[in-house]
Amino acid sequence: MAVTAAIAVAAGLAAGWYLRAEFPALLFSSPSIAGKKKKNKKKKSTSSAVSQDPDPISVTSTGVGDGGGPGVYETKKAIDEYVQFHFGDPQEVLPWRDGPREALRFTERCADLCAEHCKLVASGKWEITAAEDEKGAPRSPHLHRSGKSGLALDVGCAVGGASFELTKHFRDVVGVDFSQSFVTTANLMKRVGSLQYTSVTEGTMVESRQTSALDPGIDRQRVEFFVADACALPKSMMLGGSAPADSELFGKYGRHDAVLAANLLCRLPDPEHFLMACARLVRPDGVLVLVSPYSWLEQWTPKHKWLGGGGGHKSSDVIKALLESTAGGFDFVTQNDLPFLIKEHDRKFQWGVSHATVWRRRNPAVHTGEP
Ligand SMILES: C[S@@+](CC[C@H](N)C(=O)[O-])C[C@H]1O[C@@H](n2cnc3c(N)ncnc32)[C@H](O)[C@@H]1O
Question: Which of 6, 4, 21 is closest to 55 using CA atoms?
Answer without folding.
Answer: 21
